[in-house]
Structure formats: C-alpha cells, structure tokens
Amino acid sequence: ISYKSKNKSFWDFLCGRMSDVSIKVRVIEIPKHLLNKDYSNEKGFRDDLKDWLYQIWEAKEEFLNSV
Known about the structure:
Elements: E1 2-3, H1 10-14, E2 21-22, H2 43-65
Antiparallel strand pairs: 1-2
C-alpha cells in the first residue's frame, strides 16, 4: 500500500485526507527452510526469518515504484 498524499499521519488517515492510494500485490513464496519451524524455541530460525523479512522490506520501495 502506497499513499500519495502529502500528509501521512494516522490522524490524516482517520479523517479521510489520504484518499490517493495505490495497492500492488505480489506473491512471495516462503522458502522451504523456513517452513514448519518453531519461532518460540529456535533462535537460528528466528534470525533466518527476520533476515528474510528484512530483505522483503528492503525490496518493497523498488517494487512499489515499478510499473
């Protein structure tokens, strides 16, 4: 979700001042090595998952700005 509005506060959102919105969706496959793990008890898994999610977050801007 990308808001094109000049003001982007939560209050602006609640007041309906953020009406120019762009939504783009992509399917991201979860890597097999991240499936069926225990987030609560496997620190290595937590670190791997956080790294993977960080990579997705970093690529988000480029994806939102693409055609």
